Automatic annotation (TrEMBL):
Residues 291-355 form the Mop domain. The gene is modC. Coiled coil: none annotated. Keywords: ATP-binding, Cell inner membrane, Cell membrane, Membrane, Molybdenum, Nucleotide-binding, Translocase, Transport. SUPFAM superfamilies: MOP-like, P-loop containing nucleoside triphosphate hydrolases. Gene3D superfamilies: 2.40.50.100, P-loop containing nucleotide triphosphate hydrolases. It holds the Pfam family ABC_tran. SMART domains: AAA. This is Molybdenum ABC transporter ATP-binding protein.
Length: 355
């Protein structure tokens, strides 16, 4: 873990008290209800909350402890907000070059060029911000943050101000940053979909405290957290495309849960994919079903189960080296006497491709 921090901050009504160890690359998402302190956490990391007491180390460098406080402009932080906040009187290129001037790097253009490429904004360089769509403005803001050669990229709900179509336009660019840059990103979001698509690591906050932290798959599979009770509760499974059958468009993906079959469109063999399995699309049977239309039937063991609302039970299933969530009716749970430790057959009706 190469980002380590522990902080306390008191604001009267609100207090924050947490410690975290986050990976030095990839996306750590911060998830939690409004007002729980997500933005405050990012501001502390950027050095913008002077009253926060604690320490922060990023990649072996100390940015804050009892003896020192590196001021915000000397921290190699890229910060992307919900609003793109570009300079209106500068062209896109002018905005990017401004970012470069503030950079702590060696001042060459290679990172700027890379940022332009990664965000696909070369054709926009001569335009002013008002000549860009909201999504394009946000891509420029992200490129500007990257051009500063940050050691840490903070993204505070970067897609929240955009409509559904624009959000889906930008997500692939964020996925690309994730794939191609070795850069830790802290991503605050209210969107379960964004978190499922982008995050490797997940921090769940509540009322200024860390409620849960760990790999995305582990935290999503915790039945004691409120996120498992949300309607869209799902499991995210990483895999590699193993086969594509052009006769019916079925892709076979090798995953920790074993081979998963799904109609995902044509994909290249060997391509890594991130799959989403909704808890409501997973059911269980005590005996192996015969002649089922369901493409994926796998031996599984119930690891844990929790009542949800009046009529549902959520099961956490161990399937191979993976876990799957399955939401079944309370009646089925009673009639099949479902309980922890029981061996069952998991049936996965539909697997979606994330990204
Ligand atoms: N400048 C400020 N002065 C006083 N209190 C503040 C200030 N900024 C935020 N707060 C309070 O601190 C708490 C944490 O706010 P913060 O913005 O970090 O939450 P958040 O989780 O990012 O919320 P949201 O998801 O709504 O953006 C809230 O109770 C908020 O009202």
């Amino acid at each position: 873990m190469s980002i380590e921090l522990a902080f306390r901050l008191d604001r009267g009504d609100f207090s924050l008290d947490l410690s975290l160890a986050l990976p030095g690359a990839g996306v750590s998402a911060v998830f939690g209800p409004s007002g729980c302190g997500k933005t405050t956490l990012l501001r502390i990391m950027a050095g913008l909350e002077r009253s926060a007491v604690g320490h922060l180390r990023v990649g072996g460098r100390t940015w804050q402890d009892v003896n020192q406080f590196v001021p915000p402009h000397r921290r190699a932080v890229g910060y992307v907000f919900q609003e793109p906040s570009l300079f209106p009187h500068r062209s896109v290129e002018g905005n990017l070059r401004y970012g470069l001037r503030r950079s702590q790097g060696n001042g060459d253009n290679s990172r700027l060029e890379q940022s332009i490429e990664l965000l696909g904004i070369r054709h926009l360089l001569a335009r002013r911000p008002h000549q860009l769509s909201g999504g394009e403005q946000q891509r420029v803001a992200i490129a500007r943050a990257l051009a500063m050669e940050p050691a840490l990229l903070l993204l505070d709900e970067p897609l929240a101000g955009l409509d559904e179509a624009r959000r889906h336009e930008i997500l692939p660019y964020l996925e690309r940053l994730h794939r191609e840059l070795v850069l830790p990103m802290i991503y605050v979001s209210h969107s379960r979909e964004e978190v499922a698509r982008l995050a490797d690591h997940l921090v769940v906050m509540d009322n200024g405290r860390v409620q849960a932290e760990g790999s995305l798959t582990d935290v999503f599979a915790r039945l004691d957290l409120a996120i498992a009770g949300q309607p869209g509760a799902e499991t995210v499974i990483e895999g590699v495309v193993d086969d594509y059958d052009p006769r019916d468009g079925v892709v076979r993906v090798n995953s920790d849960a074993g081979p998963l079959h799904a109609v995902l469109g044509q994909l290249e063999t060997g391509q890594p994919v991130r799959l989403q399995v909704q808890a409501r699309d997973v059911s269980v049977a005590l005996t192996a079903p015969q002649d089922s239309s369901i493409l994926n039937v796998m031996p599984a063991r119930i690891e844990d189960l929790a009542e949800q609302g009046a009529g549902h039970v959520m099961l956490r299933l161990r399937v191979g080296d993976a876990v799957l969530l399955a939401r079944v009716s309370r009646r089925s749970a009673r009639e099949l006497s479902l309980q922890s430790g029981l061996e069952v057959h998991a049936q996965v009706k539909s697997v979606a491709l994330l990204g």
